[in-house]
Amino acid sequence: MTETAGDTTTAEGRRFPPPPELAAHANVGPEVYEEAARDRLGFWAEAARRLTWTQDWDEVLDWSNPPFAKWFVGGKLNVAYNCVDRHVEDGHGDQVAYHWEGEPGDTRTITYAQLKDEVCKAANALLELGVQAGDRVAIYLPMIPEAVISMLACARIGAVHMVVFGGFSADALASRITDAGAVLVITSDGGYRRGAPSALKPAVDDAVDRTEGVRNVIVVKRTGEEVAWNEGRDLWWDDVVERQSTEHEPESFDAEHPLYIMYTSGTTAKPKGILHTSGGYLTQVAYTHWATFDLKADDDVFWTAADVGWVTGHSYIVYGPLANRATSVMYEGTPETPHRGRWWEIVEKYGVTILYTAPTVIRTFMKWGEDIPAKFDLSSLRVLGSVGEPINPEAWLWYHEHIGGGRCPIVDTWWQTETGAHMITPLPGVTTLKPGSAQRPFPGISAKVVDDEGNELEKDATGLLVLTEPWPSMLRTIWGDDDRYVETYWSRFGTSVYFAGDGAKVDEDGDIWLLGRVDDVMNVSGHRISTTEVESSLVGHATVAEAAVVGASDPTTGQGIVAFVILRGNVTEEEASGDELVQRLRTHVAKDIGPIAKPRQIMVVQELPKTRSGKIMRRLLRDIAENRDLGDVTTLTDSSVMDMIKDKLPAAPSED
Q: Which of 27, 105, 217, 272 pairs with 454 at a CA distance of 20 to 30 A?
């Protein structure tokens, strides 16, 4: 990749040193980087000793057959025991594990002792139904405590859970059940979404009818809606789980025993079943959760505002926080139900101290205006986090000022479903923050930016992000397809170098700025321009709350830049409908980045197509920009958004 002039992603000049009080009492200090660099494997071994092992390991890492890693070889542990039982045995059974908030306003408070009882009962129920260690269990639930209980029950008996996000279609669920070979499905009648019940059981019935091997479907009562019933196969959670004993002796499993499969969506190819195992995964999610968020188990209230159906939920709602004895918040619904201040109401209600969410949500809050969070007491917050995609500097600054009160460090974390845990992130008590940058590899992680031939780039250059050493929470393979695992992740630069698929820039200080997927790098007249760069520039304009940029075929330049923008709430209808604002935005980008980056076309829209995890579906926007038939829209929160955007499509692009 070649660098573009005036790169807006790194142009933000403000710096934010750690708050002195936080730095003085931080879980880790600046020396952690040197310690990890001096003895990388020793560093991870020390992190693993924060857990309880029933059998010590013989070797920290076996990398004799790359890219197939084995961590903590010979070690044994039980993941559920580490997340629940040991805290109860240590006298913390009365500590709250989860403050759960249902969208309609119902609540549940679950202590560690109560969680242990519920997990044991669910584990006993699975055993009664013939589920054995190594069997796969599909979980298709809303954001309710039974989702966490089900995951831990599987981990407790050595079954491999495969959580499918509740927004996925019956087709997506069926393909995952078939690929994983699941023998049991745990679901519910439905959940609540935007103020109304949303059914889940019908999709399960449809999916299971198209698959083989599922013996039972356990159904949690959540909404009370009527559901179809298959006698002999379907069982109510209350009937099969509640009568079980609260006693269950956890079995120890090898560090490399499979813990879960998580499928990444494929736009054209078959979804990939990412396999994570036990010892290395729990080591890294627990340590990164403790260090990245400076978690104080006795004092903090931690909220990852995501869904357990995604890897963010697995690692930082379930396994990381529970391993660290955190008190967490779980919320079932959407940020705007029943009002746009719901999140801030929850922060105030539970005294949330650490909030972790996605840039897409932050930009939505920007669009709604700072007057909404200003109505609530957010003074309990001390650390903020960002996850899911690169955060625009303007969104970072808004988050810092209007949510963090100008006092909370923001940890902008880069990682993936495949990596399992944080890989590049600031540390809140150590790092002087740069808005929009993930900054440095986590201690013990080897991440570099390279050119197309794999040569490491010097400072102030743009290229490809790679990981050059194995890490504990890394994916072990693609379920049932070792060849695809090697080809997808370890073929471009050899079997010892993981290619993340993301572009990145190294600035003059050696800090890393993520530029999004390499697929999202546009080639305009021979210049490589990141969609993230242009989006950051647009969001940096006072009128724009959110932007999505795609490249579209252009007979002259190869690709032309097409932008879709949502305006801030203070922009008048007259301004929004006129061409003058669009021209001002195009000029703004040209001045900010360079004339080559001026969008060919800018469309003002009311909403962008997003999945229910908050990710913008740029693939669909490319379809619109290219005037193609739309691809699959089943994972969108609201598929009607695409019709609204198409209706606004101008007959011809803007002219210079």
A: 272
Burial 132-150 (b: 16+ CB within 10 A, else e): eeebbbbbbbbbbbbbbbb
Distances (CA, A) of 80 to 507, 538, 542, 645: 42, 46, 48, 46
pTM: 0.85
With 0-12 / 13-18 / 19 or more C-beta atoms within 10 angstroms meaning exposed / middle / buried, residue 35 is: middle
The pLDDT score that the predictor gives to residue 6 is 38
Q: How far is Cα 109 from Cα 106, in angstroms, rounded to an integer?
A: 11
Beta carbons of 369 and 138 less than 8 angstroms apart: no
- End-to-end CA gap in the chain: 27
State the Cα–Cα distance between residues 459 and 453, nearest whole angstrom.
17
Tokens 């009527």, residue? Answer: 226
Best CA proximity match to 602, nearest among 526, 532, 538, 647: 538
Residue 157 CA to residue 219 CA, distance in Å, equals: 20
Stretches where the chain sits below pLDDT 50 are: 1-10, 266-268, 651-656
- DSSP letters, 558-616, are EEEEEEEEEE-TTS-HHHHHSHHHHHHHHHHHHHHT-GGG--SEEEE-S---BBTTS-B
- Assigned token pair, 275: 């396999």
Task: Evaluate whether 383 touches 428 at the Cβ level (below 8 Å).
Answer: yes
pLDDT at residue 641, rounded to an integer = 75
Taking every pair of C-alpha atoms in the chain, what is the biggest distance, in angstroms? 73
pLDDT digit string (tens) for 286-329?
999 999 999 999 999 999 999 999 999 999 999 999 999 999 99
Q: Which residues contact 320 (CB under 8 A, 6 or more apart)?
A: 285, 286, 288, 289, 290, 326, 421
Structural domains of the chain sorted by starting position, each given as residue range(s) with its CATH number in brackets: 525-647 (3.30.300.30)
User: CB–CB of 255/71 below 8 Å?
Assistant: yes
Residue 390 DSSP label? P
Separation CA 325–CA 319 (nearest Å): 10
How many other C-beta atoms are found inside a 10 Å radius of the C-beta of residue 230?
12
Residue with tokens 């009962």: 121
The three-state DSSP-derived secondary structure of 518-557 is HHHEEEECCEEEEHHHHHHHHHCCCCEEEEEEEEEEECCC
| Interior angle at CA 650, CA 648 and CA 655, nearest 5 | 140
User: Could you report the per-residue pLDDT of 505-535, keeping only the tens digit for each?
Assistant: 999 999 999 987 777 777 786 666 778 878 8
